[in-house]
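DATA SHEET
Item: assembly model
Revision: 1
Owner: S.N.
Input lines:
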Amino acid sequence: MIRVAAVGDIHVGTDSDDRLLDAYAGIEEHADVLLLAGDLTKCGTPDEARFVVHELEKVTVPIIAVLGNHDHHDGRPEAVADILGNAGVHVLEGHAAVLDLPGGRLGVAGVKGFGGGFAGANASAFGEPEMKAFVQHTHTIANRLREALASLDGEDCDARVALLHYSPTPDTLEGERLEIYPFLGSDLLAEAIDCAGADLALHGHAHKGREEGCTPGGTPVRNVALPILGAAYRVFALAPSAIPRCVTTG
Amino acid sequence: MTETTHVDHVLIHVRDAFATDARVGELGLDVTHEHDEVVVRGAISNAVRKEALVPVAREVLDQYGCALGVRDETEIPAAGAPDREPEQL
C-alpha cells in the first residue's frame, strides 16, 4: 500500500503561529508522501512562502504541491513556487512527478485547476472576451492535467493521483452555496481525469464542502481542505491497481 | 448610512474587505445582518486574522456611515495530527 497524506488550504501567512509545525512531526509514521492541494499561503507573497517552508520543516517525507488561487493573489506565483522548490517541495503545474516509495511507485499529476461549473450549469466560451478568457483558462488547465496524467503511462506506476486545488466534481462542494459552484471547480477537470486515468483525485478550495465524491467515471475524489478535515492532513492508503481509461466517442 | 447605500450593499463591501484586506485574507466568510449587528461566521485560519475581523468590518461600516455593531462568530478549525485511520482505496 502507498500511504498518501494530503491537505489543502493551510493559508499560511506571516502571522502564522506554528500550529502546523508540530502536527507534521512524525508524519513518516503515518504516510510516505505529503501532497499539498493549493492555497498554501494567505495572499501569495514570497514572505508568506518562506513561512510555509518553516511550517513544513518537520516533514520528513517527500512533499508534492500545487498552488491555489491565494498563492496567485500577489501576482508572483513563480516566486512562491521557487521558494518552495528551493526548500525541496516539488511544485507541479501541468506536469507530473514519480516517486518510488516503500509501498510502491506513485505518480502524481498536478494542476491548479480553475472554475467554470458543472454539467447542466457550466460556463461556455461565448460572448464577451472576458467570459471566453475565463472558460478558455479552464480548458487550458484541463488539457494540461490530461497531458500530465498521460505522461505517467510509461512510468509503470502502481498508483496515480491527480492533485488539484479546484474541484473536479460538485459532489465535494455540497455545503457550499450553489451560486458559487462555478467558482469552485469544473467538470472539464473530471473529464481529463476520467480519460487519462487516476486512482484518486485530491483537491481543496471548498472550505464548506464535504470530503467524499467521485468523478462521473468513478475515480474517487477527496476534498482535503483543512477546514473540512479539522486536522493537519488525512491519509489515504492506495492499493496497486489497473487504472481504467474511458473512450471518448461522438 | 447614506441615502443611497442599503445595508445589503454594505454587507457585500464588508465581505469583500475580508477577502481583499491582507489583515484577514479570507474568502467565503458568511456576513449577515441580524437585528442591530453585522454577524460574521465561518472558518478563519488563525487568531491574528480573527482579531482583525471586527476592525476591518468597522472601517467599512464607518465608511458608509453605518452604525451597526459587529459580532464575530467565526471559528478556527483544528489542525492537529489526524486521529482517523487511513482510508483504504
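QC remark: Chain A has a mean pLDDT of 95.
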